[in-house]
Amino acid sequence: MILTLASRPLALSVLLYATIGLSAAFLAYIFLLGLQLFRYATRRQEKDREISRAGASQTILDLVETMKGKNRELFGRPHDRLQMKREGLTLAAAYFPAEENDTKGKKQGCAVVVHGWRDSHVARSASALDYLAGGYSVLMPVLRGHGESQGARIDLGCQHYRDLFAWMDEIRKREDAPDYFILDGLSMGASTVLMASGDPGLPPDVLAVLADCGYSSLLEEGRWITRGMGKLTRKPAFAVTLFLFWLVMGYRLHDATPLGQVARASCPIFIIHGKEDNFVPTVMGEELFAAASSPMKELWLVEGAGHAMSEWEAGALYWQRKEDFLQKVWDSRKL
C-alpha cells in the first residue's frame, strides 16, 4: 500500500508531462500546417507555369500546344512592355494597340485582360487575340507577386484591385488612348475585376465587367479548398492561416469582398462559370450573380467546363457570348 501511494504522484506527473508534450506537439503541427497553407497560397509566382505532362491525357496535351501557339501568335504582334511605380513597387504590363478592324460603329475600346492565381498574363493570350480581332486594344497587367511585377506575396484578397485603375490612367496618356475600357478577369483575376465593379471610384469610362470563375471571397474559397482536411485539424489550421493573412498582409475580416462589391455595382456585369468547376465551386458564380445590383447583368454556366476551362470547352461560342453582351451594353449606352 505504501508503494502504491508513493507511486501515484509519479504516475500523475508522467501523465501530466505526456499530456503537455502531446499538446505542444499538436499545436506545433497545427501551426506548421497553417503556415504551409499560407505560404502555398501567397508565395510569388516567378515565371510562367509549365503544365506537367506526366500522366496527362491527350486532350490536355493538345490544349497545352494550342495555348503555346496562341502565346506565340499574340506576342509576335507589335506590343509595348510597360512599367509603372505604385506604392514602392514596380508593376509590369503588356499593351497591344488596336488593329484596323470594323468596330461595328462603336468608339475605340480597350480590354483590360487580367490573369489568375499563380498564373501570368500570357495565359490569357487566347482572350487577348479575340479582343484584338474585335477591334479593341488590349492591356494585360501582371498582378503583384507574379512574374515581372514586384510584390513579396500574391494578393488573394484582391485588395490591390485599384492597380487596374492606375493602369488605365497610364493608357489614357497615350496618343492612341481608348474611349472606354472593359475589365475582363479569369479566376483570381475575375475576383479582382469584381472588386473593382463596386468601387465608388470606378472610372466612368469602364463600359462593363466580365468575370470568369471568380470566387466570392478569400474566406469562402479557403473554406472550400480545405474541406477535405481532417475534422480535428481543419479549423485550427485554417485559423492559423487567417491569422497569418492578418499579421503578414494586413487583411481584416471586415475587408471588402467580391460578393460585397458586386452588391454595390452599377456597371454591367457578365459572370461566366464552368458547371464542373471543383476549384472555385459553381455556386460561387451563382451567388455573385444573385448579389450583383447591376441593372444589366448576365450569368452563363458552361456545360462540362472545369475551372478556367470555359473558354476551351465552349470554343468560338465563348467569344461570341462576350461580344453579344458587350453589344447589348453598347446599345444601351447609346454612346
Write out key terms for the chains shown.
single chain; 335 residues; alpha/beta; 11 helices; 8 strands; 46% helix
Major sheet? 8 strands, mixed
Tell me roughly what share of residues is in helical segments: 40-55%
How many separate helices? 11
CATH-defined topology: Rossmann fold
Write down the overall geometry: elongated
Number of strands: 8
Mean pLDDT: 90
- List the strand order in the largest sheet: 1-2-4-3-5-6-7-8
Work out the count of structural domains: 1
Order of helices and strands: HHEEEHEHEHEHHHEHEHH
Give a quick rundown of the structure:
By secondary structure, this protein is α/β, with parallel strands linked by helices. The protein contains 11 helices and 8 strands. Strand 3 (109-114), helix 3 and strand 4 (137-142) form a beta-alpha-beta unit.
Set down the secondary structure blueprint:
Elements lengths: L1 H41 L15 H18 L4 E7 L2 E8 L12 E6 L10 H9 L3 E6 L20 H10 L7 E7 L1 H10 L8 E7 L5 H8 L5 H19 L8 H5 L6 E6 L7 H10 L5 E6 L7 H5 L1 H18 L2
Parallel strand pairs: 3-4, 3-5, 5-6, 6-7, 7-8
Antiparallel strand pairs: 1-2, 2-4
How would you explain this protein's 3D organization?
With 335 residues, this protein is α/β, with parallel strands linked by helices. It has a single domain (33-41, 57-333), classed as Rossmann fold (3-Layer(aba) Sandwich). Helices cover 46% and strands 16% of the residues. The chain has eleven helices and eight strands. It has helices at residues 2-42, 58-75, 125-133, 163-172, 188-197, 218-225, 231-249, 258-262, 282-291, 310-314, 316-333; strands spanning 80-86, 89-96, 109-114, 137-142, 180-186, 206-212, 269-274, 297-302. An eight-stranded mixed β-sheet has the order 1-2-4-3-5-6-7-8, sandwiched between helices. Helix 1 crosses helix 7 and helix 2 (58-75) packs across helix 3 (125-133). The longest helix is centred in the N-terminal third of the chain and has 41 residues, at 2-42.
